[in-house]
Amino acid sequence: MNLLIIFSYLDVVSLCRCAQVSRTWNVLALDGSNWQRVNLFDFQTDIEGPVVANISKRCGGFLKVLSLRGCKSVTDDALKTFAENCRNIEELNLDDCKSITDSTANSLSKYSKKLMILDLASCTAISDQTLKSISDGCPLLSQLNISWCNQISDNGVEALARGCKDLKVLRCKGCVMITDDSLLHLGLHSPKLTTLNLHNCVNISDDGMQDMARGCTNLKSLCLSGCLHLTDKSLISLSNYCHSLRTLEVSGCCQFSDSGFQALARTCSELRKMDLEECVLISDASLIHLAIGCPNIETLTLSHCELITDEGIRHIGTSACATEVLKVIELDNCPLITDASLEHLMGCHGLQRIELYDCQLITKAGIRRLEAQLPNVNVHAYFAPPTPPNTDGRQRPRYCRCCSIL
């Protein structure tokens, strides 16, 4: 019995090796109780249907967590056998399992009543029928990833929201068929939602965001990066309803301006991570409002925000979050900031990383002073200065140099 307990701490490879030592060890190592969590990602190129079927028969009701991420050769038939044998599965990762179809979801719906976490990212053959099956048979589902499943539409999301009342995490990056209707149904039926990733869902608008925010008031993490049609109205909706927001990623949302972030900063004081890359309309005014209203910011990305100046960084560097809380600030391609910004950040004793790629007014001396003041900070700087034209008037090829050789 003591040996069985020891085996319970071993990974899959170690258990298989132990099983070859003796008959006694074989029985103990292959005991189903040792196979409650199985991750086959490291063997993805070798895993085919029969392997999954054999594991499911051996593990049976013991198996609770299985990752087949990247196992492209695994088929619906193997997962049907798995679902029949492993009815206590709680977490299943099928990320990038290209061969599975809606048939797999049908099997899970019949047998996997305890399923709570399901990852179907990049399973491009599945459709709305998968979400309808999951909503019918997996009522405990709380986390779902359907990123890059480009056949998923509003019909599937509606079925999911109606059937899975405990849904807390939904990731649907690149699901271009999702529109405001999906956001409406999430707002109506998913009040427990805390994490929503809509990266590159290009067909959503401010109206859908308002419907979602009104109903999902417990939202803590939201990604809207690449949602090009959104305006400040979406930020105002978040400020009105989602006061618990901690992570906001809006990279590439080029219509957001200072007005939207001013509204957000007034009510969302819990914000810890903000990615504002390529929000090209924001200026120092946004940073002033964030410095005042969001004292818990740990990570702030301002890359390609070309209106930001030293004055805005000064407000961040002297804000309530600066002394201990701020850990990462990214300022790539901010052409107006100078060494003065680095001076303003020297009081940020918790700062761990600063990115300064292609900041042409930052100097080697400024970086060295910052590193001397904050020896634990990791500075990433990468310069691509313009070069004189050739005699024929054409620009010479640009070259780059890393700060590690400065």
UniProtKB/TrEMBL annotation:
<keyword id="KW-0677">Repeat</keyword>
<protein>
    <submittedName>
        <fullName>Putative F-box/LRR-repeat protein 20</fullName>
    </submittedName>
</protein>
<dbReference type="InterPro" id="IPR001611">
    <property type="entry name" value="Leu-rich_rpt"/>
</dbReference>
<feature type="domain" description="F-box">
    <location>
        <begin position="3"/>
        <end position="39"/>
    </location>
</feature>
<dbReference type="InterPro" id="IPR032675">
    <property type="entry name" value="LRR_dom_sf"/>
</dbReference>
<feature type="domain" description="F-box/LRR-repeat protein 15-like leucin rich repeat">
    <location>
        <begin position="63"/>
        <end position="257"/>
    </location>
</feature>
<dbReference type="InterPro" id="IPR050648">
    <property type="entry name" value="F-box_LRR-repeat"/>
</dbReference>
<dbReference type="InterPro" id="IPR057207">
    <property type="entry name" value="FBXL15_LRR"/>
</dbReference>
<dbReference type="Pfam" id="PF25372">
    <property type="entry name" value="DUF7885"/>
</dbReference>
<dbReference type="Pfam" id="PF13516">
    <property type="entry name" value="LRR_6"/>
</dbReference>
<dbReference type="InterPro" id="IPR006553">
    <property type="entry name" value="Leu-rich_rpt_Cys-con_subtyp"/>
</dbReference>
<dbReference type="InterPro" id="IPR001810">
    <property type="entry name" value="F-box_dom"/>
</dbReference>
<keyword id="KW-0833">Ubl conjugation pathway</keyword>
<keyword id="KW-0433">Leucine-rich repeat</keyword>
<keyword id="KW-0732">Signal</keyword>
<dbReference type="GO" id="GO:0005737">
    <property type="term" value="C:cytoplasm"/>
</dbReference>
<dbReference type="Pfam" id="PF12937">
    <property type="entry name" value="F-box-like"/>
</dbReference>
<feature type="signal peptide">
    <location>
        <begin position="1"/>
        <end position="18"/>
    </location>
</feature>
